[in-house]
Amino acid sequence: MRNLLLVAAGGAVGAAARYGVTARLFINLNAAMTTDPDGDLGATAAAVADAGLDPGRVVFELVEDDAVGDAGRLTDTLA
User: Fold this and answer.
1) Element (H, E) at 62
2) What DSSP string describes 20-52?
3) Burial zone of 11 (CB within 10 Å; 0-12 exposed, 13-18 middle, 19+ buried)
4) CB-based burial of residue 51 (10 Å sphere; 0-12 exposed, 13-18 middle, 19+ buried)?
5) What is the pTM of this model?
6) Residue 30 has what pLDDT?
7) Using only C-alpha atoms, what is the Rg of the chain?
8) Residue 10: helix, strand or coil by DSSP?
9) Which residue has the higher pLDDT, 27 or 31?
10) 28-51 pLDDT, tens per residue?
């Protein structure tokens, strides 16, 4: 599931850049993807930057099927 979400996020970022989408871009991630700022979340944020998208228009949403194990670490990573 994690790899599928990562591929979907990259595809969404690429499509938004390619088609000049100016609306907000909502990207679903599971909690495990957000615990390492240099991991999946970092890769997705880098893809946003590389695509030239305004990061203020990108909303990361946590899917409900995964529990957050360490809320403090999650908060630090998202800060």
Assistant:
1) strand 58-62
2) T--S-EEEEE-GGGGS-TTTHHHHHHHHHHHTT
3) exposed
4) middle
5) 0.73
6) 79
7) 12
8) helix
9) 27
10) 887 777 766 667 778 888 899 999
